[in-house]
Amino acid sequence: MSGRSVVRLICGALFCTALFAAPLIFVATAGAQQPDAAKPDAPKTDAPKTDAPKTDASKPSDTPASAGGAPAAAPAPASAPDLKTKLGRAPKDIPLIDPCKSAHPPSYCNVKD
Amino acid sequence: MSKTEPPSRSDRLSRVLSYLVAITTILGIPVGLYGYYSSQQANRVNRTFDFYKDFRSDTLQKDFSLLVEQWNAKAADVEALLEKNDEAGLGQLVTSLLQSDEAQTALAQLVLFFDETYSCVDKALCDNNAAFALLKNPADQIFYMYGSYLTTVRQHNPNYATGILKVRGLSKSWSLL
What we know:
Structural class of chain B: mainly alpha
Number of helices of chain A: 4
Number of strands of chain A: 0
Structural class of chain A: mainly alpha
Largest sheet of chain A: none
Order of helices and strands of chain B: HHHHHHH
Radius of gyration of chain B: 28 Å
Shape of chain A: rod-shaped
Number of helices of chain B: 7
Helix content of chain B: over 70%
Oligomer: heterodimer
Distance between the termini of chain B: 59 Å
């Protein structure tokens, strides 16, 4: 191979690298978005395992069964306070009130480090 | 007129081989780099998930549940104070919730946990987006329940509970991988 063809080959290789790198970067970017979308799934699968509401969720199914299995008990409660009134006690790991979402949020809600 | 000789078999073979080498190099470098950075990213996500598993472990869940239960027990009082816009009263109520040793220990454990978590994210050993997805919500919950106490302590010791505030303030970041 002559010197000119070697230069041509190197130039071609560089050009092709640029050509291939662009779609690869694009693929990498697209791949970055997929794990982001998949990340929330991880807690979703874990949540039923560890979250205390699981035990709470089992309770309403018991109560309606004893009360004749009324289908009205099946829908999930719309808000945490409703959950408390239906179960008679609050869930263990869901705070019932978020002061920062109240009509008069305390000043500490705006604190940012 | 010069007579051009047809390329010999070895010439043709060497040309094909050189093309193959070039193509392998061209494809190999970006793919290799992508693989390397992907594995680094996967390690960061795994490390963050380990923190999440720690948070969901019995010890920290007990602490978290204790704080939530205490807060929920006073839900009616909190609601009344919020309606009156009585911030000082809310602060006193929260402080009273943290009088017991158990509650203090529970809060201290959670503060320590979030300090460690944020330290990991800050030093790029853990993944920002995974921490955002998994731990921002608990940090938010702790802060809105006991934020008045935390901010009071922070007035004297600005480094206290920095982790909770930082994790609470995490936002999704764009990344190539």
